[in-house]
Amino acid sequence: MTNFVSDSLIAAYQKIDTSTIGHLTEQGYLVGIKPIQDCNQSLAGRVVTVRLNSDNTDMINEALRLAHTKDVLCIDAQILGNKACWGALRTCAAIFEQLSAVIVLGKVTDSKALKQLGFPVFASDISALTTHKSIGEQGEINCCLKYQTDDNNTVTINSGDVAVMDNDGVFILPLPVAESLIKDCQQKQQKDDAKLQLFMDAYKNNELDQIIKKLKADK
Hints:
α6 (about 175-205) packs antiparallel against α7. The protein is about 35% helix and about 25% strand. The protein has helices at about 5-15, 20-25, 60-65, 90-95, 110-115, 175-205, 210-219; strands at about 35, 45-50, 70-75, 85, 100-105, 105-110, 120-125, 125, 140, 145-150, 155, 160-165, 170-175. By secondary structure, it is an alpha/beta fold. The strands form three sheets. Strands 1, 2, 3, 5, 7, 9, 12 and 13 form an eight-stranded mixed sheet that branches. The longest helix is centred in the last third of the chain and has 30 residues, at about 175-205.
Protein backbone atom coordinates (compact mmCIF):
# COMPACT_ATOMS: atom_id res chain seq x y z
CA MET A 1 0.00 0.00 0.00
CA THR A 2 1.41 3.42 -0.96
CA ASN A 3 1.20 6.70 0.90
CA PHE A 4 -1.67 9.11 0.34
CA VAL A 5 -0.35 12.41 -0.98
CA SER A 6 -2.81 15.29 -0.75
CA ASP A 7 -3.55 17.52 -3.72
CA SER A 8 -2.79 20.54 -1.55
CA LEU A 9 0.74 19.32 -0.80
CA ILE A 10 1.42 18.69 -4.49
CA ALA A 11 0.04 22.13 -5.37
CA ALA A 12 2.29 23.72 -2.75
CA TYR A 13 5.42 22.08 -4.14
CA GLN A 14 4.51 23.20 -7.66
CA LYS A 15 5.43 26.69 -6.45
CA ILE A 16 8.81 25.67 -4.99
CA ASP A 17 12.11 25.66 -6.92
CA THR A 18 14.33 22.61 -6.45
CA SER A 19 17.14 25.01 -5.55
CA THR A 20 15.00 26.20 -2.64
CA ILE A 21 14.73 22.63 -1.38
CA GLY A 22 18.47 22.26 -1.95
CA HIS A 23 19.14 25.11 0.48
CA LEU A 24 17.34 23.17 3.20
CA THR A 25 18.28 19.53 2.62
CA GLU A 26 20.34 17.20 0.44
CA GLN A 27 18.01 14.29 1.10
CA GLY A 28 16.36 12.91 -2.01
CA TYR A 29 18.38 14.83 -4.60
CA LEU A 30 18.97 12.67 -7.69
CA VAL A 31 22.49 13.63 -8.74
CA GLY A 32 22.93 13.46 -12.51
CA ILE A 33 19.21 13.29 -13.37
CA LYS A 34 18.30 16.27 -15.54
CA PRO A 35 15.51 17.43 -17.88
CA ILE A 36 15.73 16.31 -21.50
CA GLN A 37 14.05 19.53 -22.60
CA ASP A 38 13.82 22.87 -20.80
CA CYS A 39 11.59 22.73 -17.74
CA ASN A 40 11.12 26.34 -16.73
CA GLN A 41 8.48 25.76 -14.08
CA SER A 42 8.33 23.61 -10.98
CA LEU A 43 6.53 20.29 -11.32
CA ALA A 44 5.41 17.99 -8.53
CA GLY A 45 3.55 14.72 -8.23
CA ARG A 46 3.09 11.42 -6.44
CA VAL A 47 5.69 8.83 -7.39
CA VAL A 48 4.92 5.42 -8.88
CA THR A 49 8.01 3.20 -9.06
CA VAL A 50 9.06 0.62 -11.65
CA ARG A 51 12.23 -1.46 -11.51
CA LEU A 52 13.60 -3.28 -14.55
CA ASN A 53 15.29 -6.58 -13.71
CA SER A 54 16.44 -7.30 -17.28
CA ASP A 55 16.04 -5.89 -20.78
CA ASN A 56 12.37 -6.91 -20.60
CA THR A 57 10.58 -3.54 -20.34
CA ASP A 58 6.96 -4.77 -20.51
CA MET A 59 6.36 -3.71 -16.90
CA ILE A 60 6.67 -0.06 -17.95
CA ASN A 61 3.57 -0.48 -20.12
CA GLU A 62 1.73 -2.03 -17.17
CA ALA A 63 2.76 0.86 -14.91
CA LEU A 64 1.48 3.36 -17.47
CA ARG A 65 -1.92 1.68 -17.34
CA LEU A 66 -2.02 1.54 -13.54
CA ALA A 67 -0.78 5.06 -12.78
CA HIS A 68 -3.27 7.76 -11.89
CA THR A 69 -3.66 11.19 -13.45
CA LYS A 70 -0.85 13.57 -12.39
CA ASP A 71 1.36 10.75 -11.05
CA VAL A 72 5.11 10.76 -11.75
CA LEU A 73 6.50 7.50 -13.10
CA CYS A 74 10.01 6.75 -11.78
CA ILE A 75 11.75 3.95 -13.69
CA ASP A 76 14.91 2.28 -12.41
CA ALA A 77 16.67 1.35 -15.65
CA GLN A 78 20.18 1.19 -14.21
CA ILE A 79 20.50 -2.47 -15.20
CA LEU A 80 20.32 -1.49 -18.89
CA GLY A 81 23.61 0.41 -18.92
CA ASN A 82 23.77 2.41 -22.15
CA LYS A 83 20.43 1.15 -23.50
CA ALA A 84 17.34 3.36 -23.33
CA CYS A 85 13.95 2.09 -22.15
CA TRP A 86 11.99 5.27 -22.86
CA GLY A 87 11.31 7.20 -26.04
CA ALA A 88 8.69 9.00 -28.13
CA LEU A 89 5.95 6.36 -28.19
CA ARG A 90 5.95 5.79 -24.44
CA THR A 91 5.94 9.56 -23.98
CA CYS A 92 2.78 9.68 -26.09
CA ALA A 93 1.28 7.06 -23.76
CA ALA A 94 2.25 9.14 -20.70
CA ILE A 95 0.57 12.18 -22.24
CA PHE A 96 -2.56 10.11 -22.92
CA GLU A 97 -2.59 8.88 -19.30
CA GLN A 98 -2.15 12.50 -18.14
CA LEU A 99 0.94 11.89 -16.04
CA SER A 100 2.84 14.88 -14.65
CA ALA A 101 6.31 13.68 -15.62
CA VAL A 102 8.57 10.66 -16.07
CA ILE A 103 11.91 10.12 -14.34
CA VAL A 104 14.27 7.50 -15.80
CA LEU A 105 17.21 6.40 -13.68
CA GLY A 106 19.09 5.66 -16.87
CA LYS A 107 19.01 6.75 -20.49
CA VAL A 108 16.26 7.76 -22.92
CA THR A 109 16.08 7.95 -26.70
CA ASP A 110 14.21 9.94 -29.40
CA SER A 111 15.44 13.21 -27.91
CA LYS A 112 14.29 15.32 -30.85
CA ALA A 113 10.74 13.93 -30.63
CA LEU A 114 10.71 14.28 -26.84
CA LYS A 115 11.48 17.98 -27.21
CA GLN A 116 8.76 18.35 -29.83
CA LEU A 117 6.23 16.62 -27.59
CA GLY A 118 7.12 18.92 -24.70
CA PHE A 119 6.27 16.38 -22.00
CA PRO A 120 8.60 16.56 -18.95
CA VAL A 121 11.11 13.69 -19.08
CA PHE A 122 14.10 13.52 -16.75
CA ALA A 123 17.00 11.10 -17.18
CA SER A 124 20.74 10.68 -16.79
CA ASP A 125 21.47 10.95 -20.50
CA ILE A 126 20.46 10.20 -24.10
CA SER A 127 21.29 7.06 -26.09
CA ALA A 128 20.60 5.72 -29.57
CA LEU A 129 20.80 2.16 -28.19
CA THR A 130 17.43 0.74 -27.17
CA THR A 131 15.93 -2.44 -25.79
CA HIS A 132 14.21 -5.06 -27.97
CA LYS A 133 11.37 -7.46 -27.25
CA SER A 134 12.70 -9.76 -24.55
CA ILE A 135 11.65 -12.79 -22.51
CA GLY A 136 14.03 -11.79 -19.73
CA GLU A 137 13.01 -11.50 -16.09
CA GLN A 138 10.05 -9.18 -15.65
CA GLY A 139 10.32 -5.98 -13.71
CA GLU A 140 8.34 -4.85 -10.67
CA ILE A 141 5.86 -2.07 -9.90
CA ASN A 142 5.47 -0.20 -6.59
CA CYS A 143 8.81 -1.51 -5.36
CA CYS A 144 11.60 0.13 -3.38
CA LEU A 145 14.26 1.65 -5.65
CA LYS A 146 17.87 2.44 -4.73
CA TYR A 147 19.72 5.13 -6.65
CA GLN A 148 23.40 5.60 -5.86
CA THR A 149 24.62 9.15 -6.39
CA ASP A 150 28.09 10.30 -7.43
CA ASP A 151 29.06 10.94 -3.82
CA ASN A 152 28.30 7.31 -2.89
CA ASN A 153 25.12 8.20 -1.08
CA THR A 154 22.01 6.17 -1.85
CA VAL A 155 18.57 7.68 -2.41
CA THR A 156 15.70 5.36 -1.55
CA ILE A 157 12.58 5.87 -3.69
CA ASN A 158 9.13 4.42 -2.99
CA SER A 159 5.71 4.76 -4.53
CA GLY A 160 3.87 7.46 -2.61
CA ASP A 161 6.93 9.71 -2.29
CA VAL A 162 6.73 13.29 -3.57
CA ALA A 163 8.75 14.22 -6.67
CA VAL A 164 9.67 17.87 -7.28
CA MET A 165 11.34 18.73 -10.60
CA ASP A 166 12.49 21.71 -12.64
CA ASN A 167 15.37 22.81 -14.85
CA ASP A 168 17.86 22.35 -11.98
CA GLY A 169 17.04 18.69 -11.36
CA VAL A 170 14.92 16.35 -9.27
CA PHE A 171 14.19 15.81 -5.59
CA ILE A 172 12.23 12.79 -4.39
CA LEU A 173 11.06 13.23 -0.81
CA PRO A 174 9.41 10.67 1.47
CA LEU A 175 5.96 11.94 2.40
CA PRO A 176 6.82 12.76 6.06
CA VAL A 177 9.87 14.76 4.89
CA ALA A 178 7.84 16.58 2.23
CA GLU A 179 5.20 17.49 4.82
CA SER A 180 7.74 18.73 7.36
CA LEU A 181 9.74 20.80 4.84
CA ILE A 182 6.96 22.59 2.99
CA LYS A 183 6.54 25.56 5.37
CA ASP A 184 10.27 26.31 5.44
CA CYS A 185 10.37 25.95 1.65
CA GLN A 186 7.49 28.38 1.23
CA GLN A 187 9.07 30.94 3.53
CA LYS A 188 12.45 30.77 1.77
CA GLN A 189 10.86 30.85 -1.70
CA GLN A 190 8.84 33.94 -0.83
CA LYS A 191 11.85 35.69 0.68
CA ASP A 192 14.13 34.88 -2.27
CA ASP A 193 11.48 35.84 -4.85
CA ALA A 194 10.99 39.19 -3.11
CA LYS A 195 14.75 39.90 -3.11
CA LEU A 196 15.06 38.98 -6.78
CA GLN A 197 12.13 41.20 -7.72
CA LEU A 198 13.66 44.05 -5.74
CA PHE A 199 16.92 43.59 -7.62
CA MET A 200 15.22 43.41 -11.02
CA ASP A 201 13.21 46.56 -10.35
CA ALA A 202 16.36 48.38 -9.25
CA TYR A 203 18.20 47.19 -12.33
CA LYS A 204 15.52 48.65 -14.58
CA ASN A 205 15.63 51.94 -12.65
CA ASN A 206 19.45 52.20 -12.44
CA GLU A 207 19.33 51.95 -8.65
CA LEU A 208 21.52 48.87 -8.18
CA ASP A 209 24.00 50.44 -5.72
CA GLN A 210 21.26 51.24 -3.22
CA ILE A 211 19.65 47.79 -3.48
CA ILE A 212 22.91 45.87 -3.18
CA LYS A 213 23.71 47.79 0.00
CA LYS A 214 20.28 46.90 1.36
CA LEU A 215 20.62 43.21 0.46
CA LYS A 216 24.03 43.04 2.16
CA ALA A 217 22.59 44.70 5.26
CA ASP A 218 19.78 42.12 5.39
CA LYS A 219 22.16 39.12 5.47
